[in-house]
Amino acid sequence: xxxxxxxxxxxxxxxxxxxxxxxxxxxxxxxxxxxxxxxxxxxxxxxxxxxxxxxxxxxxxxxxxxxxxxxxxxxxxxxxxxxxxxxxxxxxxxxxxxxxxxxxxxxxxxxxxxxxxxxxxxxxxxxxxxxxxxxxxxxxxxxxxxxxxxxxxxxxxxxxxxxxxxxxxxxx
Amino acid sequence: xxxxxxxxxxxxxxxxxxxxxxxxxxxxxxxxxxxxxxxxxxxxxxxxxxxxxxxxxxxxxxxxxxxxxxxxxxxxxxxxxxxxxxxxxxxxxxxxxxxxxxxxxx
Lengths: 172, 106
Prior knowledge:
The complex is a heterodimer of chains A (172) and B (106).
Chain A: H1 2-18, H2 22-42, H3 46-70, H4 84-107, H5 109-115, H6 131-138, H7 143-165
Chain B: H1 2-6, H2 10-30, H3 34-59, H4 63-93
């Protein structure tokens, strides 16, 4: 089951970055999000899977699709940059990065299980990782962060509206 | 090796997360359009979210899921602001090309 979803996820992610058409990329990204929600379900994070489906495939993708459809320009995207050295530089940078991370991970694999600390205060009610346990933690331990997130979202809303209402510049 | 293939553990999810992040990073480096840059950013954010949830599941600690919850809210806000800026940029420059940003003054 994991391998099925993993292959599907990587396949759609490769489609996202390699396609020339923006709309295809957005739809493949939607597929990526849906598959990742299924991976969350597989990891027993049911609430996060639902939130992933609602927020990403619902809200964010609609935003992307709306912008693409309003401002439809399909002549650019995926130009290989002019100096050919730069291409290999970028590819090798990504390869170095992923190799570094996986190398660190493989080296520390034996000690990884020791460093995983279980939250002892809440672990008795978190056996099944249910939405009940999530809300218990969210509204006690992380209550301040939750409130700050609410204020932050309000500020973002006001900021986006002011950006959208402006005429593109302060002096026009 | 066969044991590694059959029993899916934390390592598998982390490797998948690294691969997804690298794909997003590759796309981020090679695309020119602001929209596609935001899309690749989403891909990388989701890779990190996946690793958070995997850690949370295998460490039996739910704080990771709370972090993913916050990361999702911030990602949604970031996409909103990014797309608003992209629309504004398109109105001014008639293009989504990121190299046009270099010519901005003031």
